[in-house]
Amino acid sequence: MATSRRSTCCSPTGHDSPTYCAWVGFRLDPESGRALYVPEGCAHGFQTLEDESDVTYMISTPYAPESAAGVRWDDAAFGIDWPAAERVIGERDRGWLDFEPERG
User: Are residues 79 and 25 in contact, defined by beta-carbon separation less than 8 angstroms?
Assistant: First the structure.
């Protein structure tokens, strides 16, 4: 369940998905009581919509920082339409390389 307002999205990154690299977005907030399940093989991103936001994850394997992978928030392969113009992006997230659809 969301404890702050945020926009979140996910996108399949596997070649066998009929919605490969398409994205779907949701608004999560405390009032709705909703959460989002993102299955393996999907990229996930979020943008907080208020200051002092907390985001909680549940993951299927123990966290291993050396195994982290990602895509940039503005990667053209996905074309995500983020709702807020103001962006504060962490150093790690700014450093991801372009997603290469032919490699997945």
Answer: no
Please identify which residue in the block is written with the tokens 């966290």: 63
Domain annotation for the chain: domains and CATH numbers = 1-96 (2.60.120.10)
- CA geometry: angle at 25 spanning 90 and 33, to 5°? 95
30-64 burial, b for 16+ CB within 10 Å, e for fewer? Answer: eeeeeeeebeeebbebbbbbeeeeeeeeeeeeeee
pTM surpassing 0.90? no
Instruction: Determine the 3-state secondary structure of 6 from DSSP.
Output: strand
What does the pLDDT profile of the chain (104 residues) look like in tens digits?
566 788 888 888 888 889 888 999 999 888 888 888 888 888 888 998 988 888 888 888 898 989 888 889 999 989 999 998 888 899 999 999 988 866 54
